[in-house]
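cron nightly-structures :: item 1 of 1
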Amino acid sequence: MLNPLYIIPARGGSKGIPHKNIKPLAGRPLIAYTIAVARELCSDPRRILLSTDDAGIAAVAEGLGLPVPYMRPADLATDTAGSREVMLDAMRYADEAGIAYDCVVLLQPTSPLRTAADVRAAMALYTPDVDMVVSVEPAACNPYYNCFETGPDGTLHISKGDGLLTRRQDAPEAWTFNGAVYVINPVSLRAMPMGAFPKRIPSPMPAEHSIDLDTPRDWVIAEALMGAAVEE
């Protein structure tokens, strides 16, 4: 039985979609969807840490029933601050508060269509001997089939393999991180950057749950998908 620490990162600054973490999406603040999933997974609010530097985001979260016991330092709220540093700071708070945990579950608010079942599926794949379980979706571009690089002479060549495959089905599976769920070994996170993890396990998610809100176009697509789901 896992004993997770859930971390929801939500800084105030956002250039692609201003104030996106509390911008209404289908009638609710964006962050409400991730908070709802976290609360469905965990009945102890002490284990759900919102990491934000923004008083407005904190107020919205508290209005949704999630206590916000600490604020993210300003130096971790810049465009250059990494997810690893943000999580390490939240872990530091949890350690000082006496909150024990054996894995970290990162839930980014920009994945509003992610479900509690998606998170449970990733957690079910986690064991202490892996560095991370990460949610994925099939890659739109396969490096063995339809992903090309430009050579020194300016011509295109296949990214991997001999380029002789004529059917995508014959190519090895290729995955894209969809940003929705990360189940991370705390020991590994303290020891090295996430990109250096040697043992990462994929947790496939349905394409309709995998949208990651980064641009206004993504927002329009998400609202359309959510509207279609309501009509059904």
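cron nightly-structures :: done
Helices lie at 30-41, 55-63, 83-96, 116-124, 186-191, 216-231.
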